[in-house]
Amino acid sequence: MRMKDKAVIVTGAGSGIGRATAMRMAAEGARVLCADARKDAAAETAELIGKAGGEGVALLVDVRDDASCVNMVETALGRFGRLTTLVNSAGVSAARRDATPAPEEWERVLGVNLSGTYLASRAALPHLAESGSGSVTNIASIFGLVGGSLSPAYAASKGGVVNLTRTMALTWAPRVRVNCVCPGVIETPMTAPFLGDPSWHQPLKERHPLGRFGKPADVAAAILYLASDEAEFVTGVALPVDGGYTAA
Fold this sequence. Notes:
This protein is 46% helix and 16% strand. Strand 5, helix 5 and strand 6 form a beta-alpha-beta unit. The chain has helices spanning 16-27, 39-51, 66-80, 103-131, 152-172, 192-195, 198-206, 216-227, and strands at 7-11, 31-36, 55-60, 85-88, 134-139, 176-183, 238-241. It contains 8 helices and 7 strands, in the order E-H-E-H-E-H-E-H-E-H-E-H-H-H-E.
């Protein structure tokens, strides 16, 4: 059990990569707070964890709001007695071939993806440092590492997450390890709208040398490694989980 005795918060746990990660953490022995902006989705993930024999707690959280993030951490501490692990998976996309997104779209995407990662981390880091084995794993993207023809707001937010990860890793070492994963195109509810468009689907698929899009479980496996004690000498890493996309 690679996460035995770990107390974990997963934001964006209501679907996609977040749900897969929460369930994988619980299967490996962690107690998991499933945070999401949709209470019913968080509750469904917690219920799935419970049915599989694990412990999952659902909580409505808006990662753009500092007070909501503080409450999230306090809830985890109250339920679990400690906090060892944070996975910042909450995210939104705005996939479009548009170099000038509207200001409100820019603010929404940056608010959830970048500010949300910062605020959740800010609330959790002091407690993670006290745990003796604290870790943060952020979800960035291949579009935080390379350019693309999708949303400028999304790419900017994920590029910010990559460098925020590196900065937090240096700032909090050796008390907390901080890493991020950079997924390629993953089949989730968030990507379904443009993966269903033939003009996007095949060209994107061809950019992945392994010949397929990723699955949430592919990313959850990488997050599990980075969050576990097996990665105790790993910090400040931006790990592509992209089927070879960024190798081309």
